[in-house]
# Entry
Amino acid sequence: MKISAIIQARMNSTRLPGKVLLEVLERPLLGYLVERLQQTTCLDQIVLATTVNPEDDQIALWAESQEVQLFRGDEDDVLDRYYSAAKLFGAQHIMRVTADCPLFNPDVANLVAREYENLSVDYAGTGPSFAEGLDCEIFSFQALEKSWQEAKLISEREHVTLFIRNHPELFKKAMLDNDRDDSKYRITVDNQEDFWVVKAVIENLYGKPDKIFTIQAIKHFLDQHPEIFRLNSHIVRNEGYLKSLQADALHTL
# Structure
């Protein structure tokens, strides 16, 4: 099974502009994400999907300098960006990855890929019992194409897999539970406080002794440093998704 990872990334984030190229140890967060994706055993290719906005020229230049495959498309219609990228690069099965998850876990990706293939589903993804920042979803090109053709809501165009998740009558899905509830851990980067947490994790764990440190090592570090854990523990999970739902409601008034 050929799985293509498509990373969505842009500079114009409302909560923390330019976050994907913020540097830790003289390296942008995108670099850590791509490095961790390269450690998976399930991926056939990695594509960085950014926008055509001039602000994202920096992302395009970085991708070219790192020889990462690049696609540029619509900023707001992320579903169209994914569909166009998948079509251009001949993706049969797509792993959706967001650039605000620099500590993406290769083991979780491999687990989702195995379940996706073994269960023969249209979609497989991590559930809320995984730490935020380890989010991983895999879906077929056919499911993506149907979503692209039929999704109408603002939220369904902005959040690539929402149409699939909203329509169980159309798609066969599998949501994976973690072996323990890690939902209290937040290692994504949406806000300045998130960056401080991820920065501390990388500075303390990268290369000591392994570059691709595990979620167990991250949890141990945060448990041992509650002052760092507390920096972003107050932030609501999936803030962007909730904002999109509000936009749907306003659009239908």
